[in-house]
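re the bet — no i am not wrong, look at it urself. input seq straight from the record:
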Amino acid sequence: MVRRPLEEVVSEAVASGVDWVQIREKDLTGKSLLELSQRVARAARNGASARGEAGTRVRVVVNRRSDVALALGPGTDAPPEERIDGVHLGFDGVGLLEARQLLGRDAWIGTSCHAPAETLAAREAAASYAHLAPVFPPLSKTPRGPSLGLPALAAAARGGLPVLAQGGIDAENAGEVVNAGAAGVAVTGAIFLAADPGEAAGALRQALDAAARAR
């Protein structure tokens, strides 16, 4: 498989229906990550425009780096097409409350959870959303433990915080996680490992929309 430029894949995926992009380049720091975030944000806005929607309809968050989110977030001097919406926190980043104080009430701040109880704690700490993983065995990496399954996802979704299902999600099982209560899905392999990322993103979007209409 030919490795294509990240910005090209992001733009194509958003044009095909992706409405949320997380920049997750753990090996980049400082200026390199800042510049990549600007390029990815621009690519995402271009993709949203290509499908006939305003560029603000796609959200862009950066993984772990609250400083990058602060530099490129709403209300900054960054060009509108290069702004990002917030940060997705991990175990090695700042806490949710600290990130909220730093970035303000309008920022989108998410966190990774691995049990329903963790999503309840995230809600209490003013998170905007949570990822719950792994719901199914991951497509893009070797699993580190057992999958949580749909019952755990349903329990997390009942907690009042929007929960994105992560781990092993594709167009074939996307409807199952929506039926279990997921507000959306977070994927890597289903799109980036596909021969045609745009086609894969479109199939996933169709599956999610069909399940949402049937609820």
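see?? The domain at 114-215 is CATH 3.20.20.70 (TIM Barrel). told u. also The two ends are 37 Å apart (CA to CA). so pay up
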